[in-house]
Design goal:
By secondary structure, the protein is α+β, with helices and mostly antiparallel strands. It has 5 helices and 4 strands; from the N terminus they run H-E-E-E-H-H-H-E-H. The longest helix has 15 residues.
């Protein structure tokens, strides 16, 4: 794998309607929880740990470390369903997005939309070419 990906194949990896997906992260009793909405489906590290093991203890955000790296990989893998895309872009996604997430919303959570992910992937793909 060269670490680059062409835009047409990137666009083909995501099914229609994905932009309606919203990921929400918050902490409960000190644990990082990430849900995919609609449906409040829990996003867990396990599928992404099979690709790269940065943080078997779980996700984190708001800085550039192992927990945010695992979250970035998990989000891209869940959103795209494509291991190659997730592996090619998760470090850039961590640096650009996940390290900047915080729970400063009055209700204590962050929110990331499918459109946010699409836009960042497009920027990262343009830089990689």
């Amino acid at each position: 794998m060269s670490g680059t990906i062409d835009s047409p194949s990137l666009e083909q990896t995501r099914p229609n309607q994905k932009q309606d997906v919203v990921y929400v992260g918050y902490r409960r009793r000190g644990r990082a929880i990430v849900e995919k909405q609609p449906g409040q489906e829990r996003v867990t590290p396990e599928p992404s740990l099979e690709l790269a093991n940065h943080s078997p203890s779980g996700f984190s955000w708001g800085y550039s470390g192992s927990g945010p790296a695992q979250l970035a990989l998990a989000l891209l893998l869940d959103y795209t369903g494509d291991e190659d895309v997730a592996l090619a872009h998760y470090i850039g996604f961590k640096n650009r997005v996940v390290s900047q997430l915080d729970c400063s919303h009055p209700e204590g959570y962050w929110r990331l939309t499918g459109t946010d992910i699409e836009n960042t992937l497009r920027e990262l793909s343009d830089q990689a070419v």
